[in-house]
Amino acid sequence: MTTHQDVPARSAPGTPSEREQQVLDRIERARRRRAKVKEERITLAHGSGGKATQTLIEAIFLEAFRNPLLEPLEDAAELTMNGTRLALTTDSFVVSPLFFPGGNIGDLAINGTVNDLAVSGATPRFLTAGFILEEGFPVADLTRIVDSMRAAAEAAGVSVVTGDTKVVQRGKADGCYINTAGVGLIEYPGTLGVATARPGDAVLVSGPIGEHGVTVLLARGELDIEADLVSDTAPVHGLVAELLASTSGVRAMRDATRGGVATILNEVARAADVAVVVDEDAVPVGTEVRGASELLGIDPLYVACEGRIVVIVDGAEADTALAALRRHPLGEQAAVIGRIKEDPPGLVLLNTVFGGTRICDLLVGDPLPRIC
């Protein structure tokens, strides 16, 4: 489920009402509370990219492995070796079904890894590929997956340079899982990161959102819904290169995968201690995605993309950045969807099409498990 909380009306411009201040104080206390996993066992929600995932990462993994390179929790770590800046990322793919309109787990794995490097300001260069295969998995399906990976890697200009294969007993997996790592060269002179967002910045998305998540959900055949949809899975390195070559005002970029655009915006608000204010009617959503989302009772802002990026850019450079995105085929429908403001810090506010304002919180639960 998604979480939307009403924001009480202010008593005067810039001055919180007593009720509003109580709500904000309660949220702030919860936000600063030390992360703790309350569940005794892992649930699907821990893989959703939302609150449960964030808690798991901070309470278990970050607590164990804490170091300056890990703490920013960006899509890739920035490493410097002998004066050369590198980006390193890793990802795992468990999408179900393995084949879906517009792609499969193979090209999804390549594109997802390339994109994590690209939004870190790096030129993707080398990838690894690890396969966990279930006994009885058809060799023809594996060949099809690997062929799509080869084609995707060639299109992105990267090489798969090492890998690993493991086979588990029948019933101990779900056909095929893929783990990847990626290395890229950072030549962009600036520093990118969600913590650098500041009041006055603009928020952009590179195109219509939610297409991958809804496509995968409908491909499972469990719902009597027909839609002419394909996944938006694609490598965004060319789009990012066009953007960075056009303006030095980019603060941060993220690809909107698990948890969708809303999760990224919450990460920005929290990391930079700013408010993110989004205009709902400015967010590009395709007719099919909107219709399917309404039928399913889900919000497209929380649905995964695999070829869309969220960009935080200096407000004075918003038009330049938008034009740069729109020059690339993947960014033809890019849009400015909101602004960074100072108050209330740590929150994402959604100006709805009905004229109200709501808090757009992190995802709770996992309405769309295993979409990447």
Automatic annotation (TrEMBL):
Stretches assigned to the PurM-like C-terminal domain: 198-344
Domain PurM-like N-terminal: 74-186
Region named Disordered: 1-23
Annotated GO biological process: protein maturation
Gene3D superfamilies, A to Z: PurM-like C-terminal domain, PurM-like, N-terminal domain
InterPro entries assigned: HypE, PurM-like_C_dom, PurM-like_C_sf, PurM-like_N, PurM-like_N_sf
Similarity comment: Belongs to the HypE family.
Name of the protein described by the UniProt record: Hydrogenase expression/formation protein HypE
